Amino acid sequence: MFRIMLSLVSSLQTAARIKDAIERSAKKAIIIAIAAAVFLFAMAFGLVAAYQALIVYDFTALEAAGTVAGALVALGLLILALLPVVSRPKPPQRNFVNAPAEGMAMIDQGVGKAMQQVGPLTLLVIAFAAGLLASRRR
What we know:
Number of helices: 5
Distance between the termini: 41 Å
Structural class: mainly alpha
Oligomer: single chain
Number of domains: 2
């Protein structure tokens, strides 16, 4: 029963991670689409500005188009620079369901290693002496 409950909690956490990944990807796609639209407007506005500059002011077509299109391209690059800020992954949450099992596994590995180095009888004597000293301090 407990194992079924733990597997259910684990699958819910996996579903939440998948949902977060989809949301981050959607945000990236929206920002890239906005930047692409700004780039397209930059090109169109650059052409219109060049035409207007030739008619109204005494600029050359290249100066007018370069100034306006360059400003809009810089705006598009600024929007793309915000992409890492929006898509920064959240720090992984610690899985508290498996934490007791991981702790017990570490203790079991530590005891096994100590038993290999010292021996079971010596380890039993050390544990007895530590327990005796701990009980006398109270």
